[in-house]
Amino acid sequence: MQVRMVWRQWLTRHDRVRDVLPAVPLVVVAAAATAVGTSDWHEPRWDETAWTALSCLPLAVRSRWPLWVALFTLAGDLTLMAFATHSSLAPASSLVALYTLAVLGSRRSAWAVGAAAAVAITGVYAATHVESLVGGSSLLRFDFAIAATALGRAVRSRRDNLVKARERAVRAERTQEEEARRRVTEERVRIARDLHDVVAHHITLVNAQAGVAHHLMRANPDQAYEALAHIKETSRAALDELRATVGLLRQPDDAPGSRAPIPRLADLDALAGGFRASGLSVRVARTGAPVPLAPATELTAYRIIQEALTNTRKHASATRTEVILDYGPNSLRVTVTDDGPPGAPKGAGTGQGLIGMRERADAIGGRVTARPQPEGGFQVVAELPISLGPPPTDTL
């Protein structure tokens, strides 16, 4: 096998030798055929052998000019058939040239030249050997020419199919790599968004509750002790969520027990309670007829509310915040409004928090707007789809 590979590589580098290589057995066979008599062997007819060798010379450039080589070899073989009427050799050099033209040339030129060569070879042989055009020997030469062309086209088709298969494999591998990179990027952004939400929310509450405890430590130790207890609970919740989020990076798969419970809108009361303990009054109201939400919609709504309350506690000098969940027929409208003073340093559209809100909403086909109110305060409005499936269609 190794010798075969080395031989193929050597022939690939020496194309002229590769092209002329079929001429060697053709000349040897031609010399042997002319030495065969009806009853015994005799000296080969060297004139026919030389003419056969001469007609094979154009094969040395058959891969460079396949059409011209086919025409020249055909002319040489027809001449040999016309003058050597006693020869029964098939036009071998022409067959090699027709095969090469079929492999390297276009389909139209290959079949046009192949059909013309088959007719010409059959006609000249029938005329010089006084045979019928439909005789066995004449039809055999016709079949040889057609078979050489058909074999060349079959090899060409196989090579083209292999090239296309390789291209498809390369394209599929490239697409798979791009898809993998895209998924990795999306997962990285999602984890970064979750980490931001968890850290910003809990650290903000811990900071606010620590400020309350510091303020009340001497004046009211009991309330300060209560604030410290809230700090302990909040920090423990932060550690649990961080452990669950970072633990996703170490999970080999998404087994049912590999994820922590996903926050839901039913947990809003506990979320609001944490902010109330830090000194921010939070009111949660629901309007419309509550309907089951897609899990992604429920998680997105929860995270948007969490981030909006965190921003209010961090950036706005607000004392009261209102959260309204308005259930519509096809969408959930989430509104978070605080009573901060006009011109509070809570910019709209800047910071990772607001960017994360918009990314979450965009991921499920929703949208988020955040803007300061003319009379003071800041408002975040999110429009989220109830279901992530295609909308229902009316059928008759």
Automatic annotation (TrEMBL):
> Is Phosphoprotein one of the keywords UniProt gives this record?
yes
Q: Which GO terms describe its cellular component?
A: membrane
Q: Give the superkingdom in one word.
A: Bacteria
What are the alphabetically sorted keywords of the record?
A: ATP-binding, Kinase, Membrane, Nucleotide-binding, Phosphoprotein, Transferase, Transmembrane, Transmembrane helix, Two-component regulatory system
What are the TM regions of this chain, as residue ranges?
20-38, 110-127
Q: Which residues form a coiled coil?
A: none
Q: What is its EC number?
A: 2.7.13.3
Could you tell me what reaction this enzyme catalyses? ATP + protein L-histidine = ADP + protein N-phospho-L-histidine
Please report the stretch or stretches of sequence annotated as the Histidine kinase/HSP90-like ATPase domain: 296-388
Q: Which CDD domains match?
A: HATPase_UhpB-NarQ-NarX-like
Give the Gene Ontology MF terms in alphabetical order. ATP binding; phosphorelay sensor kinase activity; protein dimerization activity
| Protein name per the record | histidine kinase
Organism, as annotated: Streptomyces variegatus
